[in-house]
Amino acid sequence: MKKKLLSILLATSMTILAACGGSNTTGGSTETDSGAKEEEAAGEETASEDAGAGEAASWDSISNVTLYYPVYFNMPSEAGIQSVQTELNKYLEPKIGVDIELHPVDMFQYTDQINLVLSSGDQVDIFMPLAGLSTYVTKGQVLPMDDYVDEMKEAIDLMGEDFMKSSYVNGSLYSLPVYKANTYQWYFMCRKDMVEETGVDLDSINSIADLEELLTKVHENHPDIYPLCPTNPNTFQLINSADGPEAEVDIDYLGDNPESCTGAVIGNTGKVENFYASDAFKEMVERAYDWNQKGLLMPEASVSPDIASDLIAAGRGFGSIIGYGYPMSEDMANRGTYGDYEMTWATCGTDLMQSAAFSNQFSLGYTSGDPAAACRLMNLLWTDEYVVNTIIYGLEGEDYVIPENFDPLNSMPDYPEGVTDQTAPYQARVSCGCFGNNFLMYGFGGSVKDFGMDLINNSKKSEYLGFLFDGSNVKTEITAVNNVISQYYTGLECGEMNPDETLPKFISELEAAGIDAIIAEKQAQLDAWLSQQ
Amino acid sequence: MKKKYNFKKDIPFFLMLAPALIYLLVNSYLPMFGIFIAFKNINYQKGIFGSDWAGFKNFEFLFKTKDAGIMLRNTLGYNVLFIVLGIVLSVTLAIMLNEIGQTFLAKIAQPLIIFPNIISMVIVAYIVFAFLNAQTGFIDKTILRNMPISWYSEPKYWPVILTIVNIWRATGYGSIIYMSSIAGIDAELFEAARVDGATRIQQIFHIMIPLLKPTVVIMVLMAISKIFNSDFGLFYQVPMNSGALYNTTQTIDTYVYRALMELSDIGMSSAASVFQSVVGFVLVLTANKIVAKVDADNRLF
Amino acid sequence: MKNKKRGNEKVFFIVAGVIVALFALFCFMPILLVISASLTDEQALIADGYRFIPSKFSLDAYTYLWRQNMMIARAYGISLFVSFFGTALGVAITALAAYPLSRTSFKWRNLFTFLIFFTMLFNGGVVSSYMVWTRIFHIKNTIWALVFPNYLVGAFNIILVKNYYQNNIPVALVEAAKLDGATEMQIFRKVMVPLSKPVIVTITMFSGLAYWNDWTNGLYYINKKELFSVQLMLNEIQQNVMLLRTANEKMGISINQADIPSNGVRMAIAIIALLPIMIIFPIIQKELIKGVVIGAVKG
Predict the structure, then answer these.
(1) Residue B301: which pLDDT band, with cuts at 50, 70 and 90?
(2) Whose CA is closest to B54, among B71, B37, B78?
(3) What is the pTM of this model?
(4) CB of C87 closer than 8 Å to CB of C208
(5) Torsion angle of C-alpha atoms B216, B217, B218, B222, degrees rounded to 10
(6) Which pLDDT value is given to residue B103?
(7) Which of residues 137-156 of B touch A (CB under 8 A)?
(8) Residues of chain A contacting residue B57, judged by C-beta atoms under 8 Å apart
(9) Of B31, B127, B171, the CB nearest to C123
């Protein structure tokens, strides 16, 4: 219990580790580029000093640039924001002629808040188009950035054209994607003692289907304990984790995700079809139903607010499926979030890299005051360690301190004496995974970066990577279809609805709601996109 | 022919109305240009007025769904039920509370009956789940020991469950209005009735309830204007968004939320609210006409 | 005969008492459950479910909140100020506006009643309200953003008060005062306000509760942590929990489940939000029931 409370008290530090990976894992960082990095950092320091000496003359005027970015759980204080802003501007004014204005927005209302400020005409220079880039383009909320590629040359070169495929709509550049591992490695996290009891070798598990034997044995040994628990409320992640390259066919949701898919390409056929009517989906929900019937899944998961970590800590759960873009380690697995139980893991599957993986992007708002200046700032968000770390960690001395023997690549700075995540005037540590260049941040340059770069370079890539669907012509059908999906998806995924009875009903209701019209529209857009490639 | 209207006489009235009117002008009338959004294909760069007209396209999604009938039936059905029950129970409770007067019980009971209204719906959903879940729930563990019911997959129970939750939440709050009306009744009326030998119950039925009628009528009229709206938390959160229960839990508001979750399209969401308002408006005008015919003193305007 | 009647009234009194007691119990039981949950050890809560008596007592949830005392205390201060100020101003405007509408001699009463009622039906939506309040009045990130939009004066309350003036205050009193040469404002102050205490108290409570419970104004207009109200804080915590389900995919980050504030804390916050009502209510209820003797004022 103590541990549980502690984990809440330390919410942020936990969150960082969780959201952003096992950064304290001081693995053997034999980075070849670490030396180069330090040099870079040193170079910047001198640059800022030079600037202080009066280099500002190179910019005739200073442009105000607003940055709207999401923060979780802890809003920075106004005073903290102000001092970070002031400090950043000392650096940015001479360097790129920009005065930054920070607008951290609580994540849970980010899209709504952005819609509000954009529609009311407030100046929004840089923001995340989280509801789907093509929608923002259709509604005229974003500006094309083609004229400013020179301002962002370093950032674009850094990521490479392949990484930026999902940033183009109708041939124009509209965004920069967040640079980080954007596909998941899926893990099955579970109680070590119970695994040992079963004698199952976790290394023999390579996919979700392989879990059945382990879960069954656990159920036999401990009928009172739920073998598989929901990772987040109302989802076991049984579909998200099983649709990767390990599956027989590649499933590209064409910009959607499995819980709201209006048409997917299954198996590189170039033909858009109804995902929920596919054999792949049927197989996945049949397995869920089968496992539910065998008692391997927590019952009533589709409505219960309970989640795996609580259940495991309380001695009622065995394990759950979770996806990370970060390497797993003993240290990471046992962060005290599972109560007193020691945890271990099996690696299950990976993701097919597709357009949806790039939904974390930053775009230019149509109300931008000076798009060129905004693009210069964006460039730094991808390439300048000082700027990135200041926005994530705040100011050294006030919001964080660098401990002795600090390894900037593999560990994060500490909070100053007596300061916590709650009381720090400014910190946006949890935003690390959705901001600029993740690998520049303290703690993400070492093993996390290696793991991430491996995922980026070696993940299987969909043939339709970069295709973005614009649903504005079939809005009415999309709403009706979404309503049908929300009625059946959770129940099926949680194994509570019998697919033999439910699936035919689900499919016929989807058809009645007009899914075929959406599929036809998607097909037409996909064909057009393919012909341009 | 007609007597000349004396404007001067009404000046104090205008002055007294002014603060409220100015506020409503700013808070409600100025933003009404937003209603245009419902009829536009919004393009932010062109602005609300510059965007292309969409006609009634944004309204289509409300009707082109298999749930159109279900959500209309549920929204209307629950509202009618809640209006009737709300009045009967709130009036009864108000009378009972008034009867026991300044007793210790009244002092304890009054805050208690208001509490449910202040608890957020998310917490209410947890409470309901605590009662109904199959693993640790009270109902299944204590009353139905041997025949557990899976409440969250059986739509037929939910009209009752939601009604109970609504009674729990709204009755105490609603009774306050009737208590204030009762408090305003001239005590001499009761005194006179007592002298004439009327029992307390007779006083209630012959004096109190007739005098509550104007308040009841106003409350009903105002409720009718909101008859196409529903308490989102009650219908979405309390049933834990369970897909199996749509038949008895889907209302216009929950449908709009579910349908637009992915799209976040302001044209369509304002279309939904315009539709709700227009229907409410037509209904309340009709109802007010009827009231004006039957009992002119009690009409709304 | 007389005795029997008195006996009947006693029975009725007891029946009324029993009904009220039962209903109050019905209202309170679920809240007792919340209180109990907030005092239960987190793991016991998951293992045993909610119980009326904690299966394993623990103050952890409240200790957690106590450690955040500065934030909570501040949010409390904001909520109290907004509720008091907004309610006082709003009730004054409402009571004043209702008076002309209740006077049959006022030629435009039906028109204005209609115009006021109309605002209950139609609204321009969040976007246009936001534009008006932020672009014309610049209230974003100020405390006034919590006071002015939506809640200050509402058609519902105006109509409630108007209805009360009309039905519970004898026209003769107003006529008499007019004959004595009182101005409309004097009639309002000396006749209407004292005689309409029950309804004033009612709308004070409604308005106060609306302000106290509101978090949407904060959601739209406040980004400053320093200006968060109690309910906005509570809601933020709740929503962050909900977000986990959908955002993981979209944001591409996996938030660890341990960040979800435990159930106990969630329940504890709900209880804390109730406290002011417990303190303020006794004052309000005295006015509501005392009103029975109102006839004495007459004459």
Answers:
(1) confident
(2) B37
(3) 0.89
(4) yes
(5) 100
(6) 83
(7) 150, 152-153
(8) 476
(9) B31
Only one residue has tokens 């959500």, namely B71
Tokens in use for A326? 């970060």
ipTM value greater than 0.95: no
CB atoms within 10 A of CB A168: 19
Cα angle, residue A376 at apex, residues A375 and A378 outer, rounded to 5°: 60
pLDDT at C83: 93
Helix B68-100 and helix B209-225, axial crossing angle in degrees, nearest 10: 150
Interchain CB distance below 8 Å, C223 and A103? yes
Domains in chain B, start-ordered, CATH in brackets? 51-298 (1.10.3720.10)
Q: What span, in angstroms and rounded, lies between the C-alpha atoms of A167 and A1?
A: 46
DSSP code for A444: S
- Mutation to test the B interface, candidates C118, C151, C213, most B Cβ within 10 Å: C118
Instruction: Copy the structure tokens of residue A108.
Output: 């849970």
Nearest 10 degrees: Cα torsion C242, A311, A331, C65 = 60
In the CATH hierarchy, which fold is given to the domain comprising A2-180+357-458? D-Maltodextrin-Binding Protein; domain 2 (3.40.190)
Alpha helices in A414-497 (DSSP H): 447-458, 475-493
Q: Which helix (H) or strand (E) holds A308?
A: helix A308-313
The b-or-e profile of C45-82 (16+ CB within 10 A means b, else e) is bbbbbbbeebeeebebbbebbebbeebbebbbebbeeb
- For B150-236, strand residue ranges (E) read none
Give the A:B interface size as CB pairs under 8 Å: 107
The DSSP code sequence of A381-403 is HHH-HHHHHHHHH--BTTTBBPP
Q: How far apart are CA A163 and CA A147, in angstroms?
A: 20
Q: Which residue has the tokens 């404007």?
A: B7
Q: How far is B64 from chain C (nearest CA, A)?
A: 23
Selection from A287, A352, A351, A291 nearest residue A319 by Cα: A291
Element (H, E) at C36: helix C2-38
3-state secondary structure of B70: helix
Q: Which DSSP letter does residue A190 get? A: E
pLDDT, tens digit, 9 for 90 and up, residues A469-496: 999 899 999 999 999 999 999 999 999 9
Supply C272's token pair.
Answer: 């804390």
- Among left, alpha and beta (phi > 0; psi -120 to 50; other), residue B241 is left
Which of A6, A10, A310, A419 is the best mutation test for C, with the most CBs of C within 10 A? Answer: A310
Residue C221 amino acid letter: Y
DSSP-derived secondary structure for A161-189: HHHTGGGEETTEE-EEE-BS--SPEEEEE
Class of domain C70-297: mainly alpha
Domain residue extents for chain C: 1-58, 70-297
Q: Is C98 helix (H, G, I), strand (E, B) or coil?
A: helix
Instruction: Give the separation between CA A510 and CA A484, rounded to whole angstroms.
Output: 6
CA nearest to A227, candidates A495, A533, A531: A495
Which residues are paired to A251 by β-bridges? A266
pLDDT on residue A149: 95
Distance between CA C132 and CA C138 in Å, rounded? Answer: 9
Are B16 and C99 in contact, with CB atoms under 8 Å apart?
yes
β-pairing, B40-41 vs A175-177, is unpaired
Helix (H, G, I), strand (E, B), or coil: what is residue B178?
helix
Q: At what angle do helices B121-132 and C2-38 cross, to 10 degrees?
A: 90
Q: Where are the domains of chain A?
A: 2-180+357-458, 184-234+306-352, 237-296+471-533
Q: What is the pLDDT of residue A109?
A: 80
Which residues of chain C are under the pLDDT cut of 70?
1-6, 67-70, 237-262, 288-299
Radius of gyration for chain C, computed over Cα atoms and rounded to the nearest angstrom: 25
- Contact between residue A473 and residue A134 where contact means Cβ atoms under 8 Å apart: no
